[in-house]
Amino acid sequence: MKLRGIEFGPCLDAAGVRGFFGEGWWFHHLPLARFVFNFTGSTRVAKTATLLPHRGNMPLRGKEKRYGPRELFPRCIWWSWSRGIALNAVGLSGPGTQELFAQGLLADEKAPFMISVMPVSYSQKERLEEFQKFCVLLEHELRKARLPIGLQINLSCPNTKLDPHELAREATLFLDEASRLNIPLVVKINILVPPEAAQSIARHRACDALCFSNTIPFGELPEAIPWKRWFPEGSPLARREASFGGGGLSGSPLLPLVAEYLRQLRTLGIEKPLNVGGGILSRRDVDTLVQAGLRRGIDSIFIGSVAMLRPWNIRSVIRRAHQLLA
């Protein structure tokens, strides 16, 4: 996937798979873990940040620990290896972009990478003001060095209690503002956003690519996701702590939904590059998305769930993406 002359490759990380700075999480550094958690060939995408420090639901360590999770197994994340599914209610925990920039998030490096940001204020006016301040801050940082960097504008985190439909309607405002940065701009949505709305976002002159799908909020799409059968007592996250809410679903159930959404976008004639993920747990899942419409040399996948639910498949998934999409 090449955007504004920068080659991001056929496989990208889901935001935060390797933390804010790319060093990964504590279990990535266990003895022999490097043979499993090998992300060579996947472009780094930093964990989604907010303008100001945001507590979220995942306690973080300090800057000396690169803001990794304080808990070895964060209570705001639940997973089932046997089912290939996970729920998370992390809620964009982070120290804020100014602190991240001060700690080297935009360190001068040659490899292309992306940062991810999401406005989290509760009114449209406040979200736009928040994003404007972020763009001013990023523009100042970009003057220091010319970096092979892209910006992912995340409009679909399910744990902020913001309506993804409303955020999608605001995408034009965010893209208008971010166009001043003169870097690749990727808008991240989830499949709850109507395909026609996605088409409208893609038509914006400053939009270089679309990314989908983020996690699905607990309880959504009941006709396609058997919530009551899997969770007869409700979300395990809500039972751990009410403030967590239901969380967002990732893993194997998303793949057929994402593939169908991709087909719908293709039917609408969207030509902008697409960065597609959700439920990719094996190399066969890459084939599924290619059959649904991903284009060689134009589109890409992103990997997230596989790193938690099937980490031994990370290398084969990345290799397959390069075979089919590079």
Structure description:
There is one protein chain. This protein has a single domain, classed as Aldolase class I (TIM Barrel), CATH 3.20.20. The protein is 31% helix and 14% strand. It has ten helices and 13 strands. The N and C termini lie close together (8 Å).
User: DSSP helix count?
Assistant: 10
Q: How many structurally independent domains?
A: 1
State the CATH topology: TIM Barrel
Proportion of helical residues: 25-40%
Categorize the overall geometry: globular
Derived structural class: alpha/beta
Q: Please write the string of helix (H) and strand (E) elements.
A: EEEEEHEHEHEHEEHHEHEHEHH
Low-confidence stretches: none
Spatial separation of the terminal alpha carbons: 8 Å
CATH architecture level-2 label: Alpha-Beta Barrel
Strand order of the largest sheet: 3-13-12-9-8-7-6
Strand content: 5-15%
- CATH class term: Alpha Beta
In short:
The protein is of the alpha/beta class. Helices cover 31% and strands 14% of the residues.
